[in-house]
Amino acid sequence: VQLQASGGGLVQTGGSLRLSCVASGSIRSFNVMAWYRQAQGQQRELVATITTAGNTNYADSVKGRFTISRGNAKSTVYLQMNSLKPEDTAVYYCNGNYWGADYWGQGTQVTVSS
Fold first, then answer.
1. Which of 62, 64, 58, 65 is nearest to 34 (CA)?
2. What is the separation, in whole angstroms, between the first and last Cα of the chain?
3. How far is CA 13 from CA 42, 59, 87, 113, in A?
């Protein structure tokens, strides 16, 4: 199983980006998909999660600004990021959890300039 994340880039404060993550391989539908991020010198933190039922959860720091969603193919996940701030700068990783087993994408860099 491979997860391929894309959509990162450089954006100014207040701008928007949409991250995408597509999974390929034997798993057609993860129980939970999520986005994590890791800023330089910091630990990886959970940004948002979504279940197969569409239930979502967000870190307090991104509530109201980020939206996680899944594609019609349940092996895809998106992260719409609006009103970006410099503190959102990090490498963003997609994650799929399948019956307790975690699968990770390679990460995509998001840089927000002030």
1. 58
2. 37
3. 21, 19, 10, 6
Q: What is the pLDDT of residues 48-105, one digit of tens each?
A: 999 999 999 999 999 999 999 998 776 899 999 999 999 999 999 999 999 999 999 9
DSSP helix/strand/coil, 71: coil
Instruction: Please answer whether residues 105 and 22 qualify as being in contact, where contact means their C-beta atoms are separated by less than 8 angstroms.
Output: no
Q: Where are the beta strands (DSSP E) in 66-114?
A: 66-70, 76-81, 90-98, 101-104, 108-113
Q: Is 96 exposed, middle or buried (0-12, 13-18, 19+ CB in 10 A)?
A: buried
In this structure, the strands spanning 9-12 and 108-113 are parallel
Distance, in Å, from the CA atom of 108 to the CA atom of 21, rounded to the nearest integer, reads 10
At residue 70's C-alpha, the angle toward residues 45 and 93, to 5°, is 30
**CA gap 52, 30 in Å, rounded:** 7
